[in-house]
Amino acid sequence: MDGAEQGPVGFFHSAGPDRIEWTEKVQVVADLDLLNLDALDPEGDREGDRQRLVATLYEREGPDFVTRLRGAFAIALWDARRHRLLLAVDHFAPDERN
After folding, report:
1. Do residues 32 and 54 lie in contact, with contact meaning Cβ atoms separated by under 8 Å?
2. pTM of the full structure
């Protein structure tokens, strides 16, 4: 699927598949180096998909979930139901993320 077929979040496609999480409700592109994974997802897989964790936290807590993130992060999240774009970076941004 190319960017045009993905609609308003087609630009996310350029980030690469390892940084993208697509669900029916939420699309996430994120660069994450989180220090508090245990607190965010106590029963989860620490080596698992962190973008999926971001999508889950957003669906459970809304946009305020970002206040719980500790570490380096840059997130672009599209909420298809509400037509809302959430952009978030850590307190020390901008820096050069790979």
Report:
1. yes
2. 0.72
Helix or strand (DSSP H, E) at 55: helix 50-61
C-alpha–C-alpha distance, residues 91 and 37, integer Å: 18
In terms of Cβ atoms closer than 10 Å to its own Cβ (0-12, 13-18, 19+), residue 6 is middle
Which DSSP letter does residue 27 get? E
Q: Which residues partner with 84 through β-bridges? A: 79
Segment 72-89, tens digit of pLDDT: 999 999 999 999 999 999
Question: What is the arithmetic mean of pLDDT over 19-27?
Answer: 73
Give the residue among 46, 42, 50 at the shortest CA–CA distance from 20: 50
Encode pLDDT of 42-51 as tens digits: 777 655 578 8
* Reduced DSSP (H G I as helix, E B as strand, rest coil) percent helix, strand, coil of the chain, to 5: 40, 30, 35
